[in-house]
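As a representative case, the lines below give one protein's residues and fold tokens.
***
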Amino acid sequence: MFGYLFLGTTFGILLRSKTGYGVFTAIISSTFVYAGSGQFLMCDLIKDQVPLYTAAVMTILLNSRHIFYGLSFISKFKPLGKLKFIPILELTDETYSVLCFTDKDKADPLCMLFISIFDHLYWIAGSVIGSLVSNLPFDFTGVEFSMTALFVVLFVDQWKSSMHLPAITGFFSSVLFLIILGPDSFIFPSLLLSAIILIFAKSRIDGGNSESENQSVGKQVES
């Protein structure tokens, strides 16, 4: 709640300061776009009057990471039946992170559904708050850094977990493609490379664990 209220507030401030649009547009955007960093980008796209096809391509590239979010939760959302389309729509960065930790406790699919719904409501509420407070006489320079701060926090949480491989893989693949392709095109290929490496590593790790377990069972049988 605190994460998305703050980020939503930041979006509402940027939307009004960069485009002039107020509360109504903030609500509509946060309800139907609901793309986190995509909405931050949207403020600049509207401000610069970028053509729709350019906006579409840039948004797809920026939010291409959601493809990999969805792939990891296909089986977990199936028990919800027709309701599964709600958490699919609402699988954003923060929600994905929370659901990953919740999934470790084998949470009920309905629990995941309500987490997704409430996160969406927090984002909408934050957008409204941001749009309202943007009229106050304060200097809001630098608030857009909050999205970068979010990704830093997610990276640190991943690093604190028992497995460092995902964080290391994501970091080096991102740096590699950032150098090769530049800041506008590196996200999707770096995610693709990371996914391939981690899928291969998972099969090797699982295979090694299975072999160790078999050897352990064999020793117990022999004894």
Notes: Confidence is low (pLDDT under 50) at residues 212-221. Residues 201 and 209 are 12 Å apart (CA to CA).
